[in-house]
Amino acid sequence: MKAHLRSVVRSGKFMVGFIIFASILLFSFIYPFFNPGNPLAMIGYNSFTKPGTYISLYDSMETRRTYIFRLPEAELARVASKLDDRDRGLIREWLILFNKQENAGIRESEIDIENTTSLLSLWWEYYTEDIRVEGLTIAGRRELSRLDQRLDGLFYTDDRHVMSYNQETGEHDILFAVITVDDYVHIDDVANSIHLPLGTDGFGRDMLKQLVSAIGTSLWIGLIAGCVATSIGLVLGLVAGYVGGIVDDIIMFITNLFTVIPGFVLLILIANSMTQFERGPVTVAIVIGLTSWVWTTRSVRSQVMSLRNRDHVNLSKLSGHSMPRIIAKDVLPYLASYVVMAFILQISSGILSEAGLSMLGLGPSTTTTATLGLMMDWSIMKSTAHITGAWWAYYPVIIVIALISFSLNLMNTGLDQVFNPQLRD
Fold first, then answer.
1. Any idea which of 220-229, 303-312, 333-342 has the lowest mean pLDDT?
2. pTM listed for this prediction
3. Are 127 and 148 contacting, i.e. CB atoms less than 8 angstroms apart?
4. Residue 335 pLDDT > 90, yes or no?
């Protein structure tokens, strides 16, 4: 036993998979202590807030200290932030059409929409409202004219006067503060701020807090599903392989029947037959386990059939030992490593099955906890995050699912190389 444990620890594939899986598990356990609270609480009024740090604009004006900085690129950065992709695309389109018409010698490689300085230099050098460029509609020319006026207005950096409301006169006539372009406040001086490493989802909920909670719930679902599937497959495989005869025929008939019917289709039918309020995380996990024991049964049966006629088993039979004792003492220990590997794969399969069910709207129905599958359903199917460009609402979930499956399969491969003589170096 100790030799096997040493071999497992020395297995590079197993250790890499174990470290990845343990890191995910440890992070999901520790993070709630630093950021407690309901993971499904709606903290934002906007859908799909992008990742970053947010400070209260109201409280930032209440800070006692204001710092003066004169950054050399501040004005350019201010302009760049107000030019969206559509504006940059319009400028590029006009420059290309203008160059074709007037043969101005502008290279398309020079028209870099990411370089604000270069783009505006070309725009101000060549654009005038009087030029009629072929290929532009009247609406397009008017839009370009409005864009040119707006660009000129971006460089007016007059001081901002903040007025307070006067309750006596009912007007905003009390000067509260004067804000200049060189005024800055320290983020620690602002009373209220929030850091959202993964932004918020379509319902205004903290994505990272939700993801951490979902990892724990999905692992719990995978664990329950793995226990149910492995237990059923182990018991049926042991009985069928050791007893044989009519018992083996009956068990294999049932196993073949479930093999013919695709497991995921059967899972969908069972989940769909339950009402929305019956599909809790534990119920879904049990259903997944009840539909994914087939390949474990077949594999265990084939292993037991090769063990039941060995000398130590025959010796136990001649000694008068009962069948349960022979299976427990003389057969099961030889299957322990295989059962552990099957259990690991069943956990991975359970997590993936829950994700697939949830994407179809048949996953756990809960308003208090999240799962990885439900997060995919909420972001893509319910809120169309992939269309709006809110990558942070589904990419982290996909990466976590992939990492969990990859780590578990890597652990299984490492164990297989240790316990399978045919795969040893």
1. 303-312
2. 0.81
3. yes
4. no
Start-end of CATH 1.10.3720.10 domains in the chain: 2-40+203-423
What is the rounded distance in angstroms from the CA atom of residue 154 to the CA atom of residue 168?
A: 36
Instruction: Quote the CA–CA distance of 210 and 371 in Å, as a whole number.
Output: 9
174-207 residue pLDDT tens: 777 788 888 888 888 888 989 999 999 988 899 9
Alpha-carbon span 285 to 29, nearest angstrom: 21
Q: How far apart are CA 210 and CA 193, in angstroms?
A: 19
How high is the mean pLDDT of the chain?
84
What is the C-alpha separation between 93 and 136, in angstroms, rounded? 9
CATH topology of domain 2-40+203-423: MetI-like fold (1.10.3720)
Record the tokens describing residue 90, joined without a space: 């319009």
Report the 10 Å Cβ neighbour count for 26. 10
- Taking CA atoms, 57 is separated from 51, 77, 100, 191, in Å, by 18, 20, 47, 10
CB within 8 A of 301, min separation 6: which ones? 236, 237, 240, 241, 248, 251, 252
Whole-angstrom Cα distance, residue 414 to residue 196? 37
Number of other CB atoms surrounding residue 262 within 10 Å: 11
Dist. CA 199–CA 181, nearest whole Å: 28
* Distance of alpha carbon 385 from alpha carbon 211, whole angstroms: 16
Q: Give the span between the Cα atoms of 299 and 42, in whole angstroms.
A: 47
5, 64, 1: which is closest to 415 by C-alpha? 5
Cβ–Cβ under 8 Å, residues 279 and 364:
yes
What pLDDT, on a 0 to 100 scale, did the predictor assign at position 172?
66
What letter does residue 50 receive in the DSSP assignment?
Answer: P
Are the C-beta atoms of 402 and 355 separated by less than 8 Å? Answer: no
Name residue 42's beta-bridge partners: 205
Specify the DSSP class assigned to residue 206.
Answer: B
Residue type, position 265, single letter: V
Whole-angstrom Cα distance, residue 279 to residue 362? 8
Candidates 363, 348, 355, 365; CA nearest to 403 is 348
Give start and end residues of each alpha helix (H) in 113-244: 116-126, 138-154, 207-243
More confident residue, 157 or 100: 100
N residues, the chain: 425
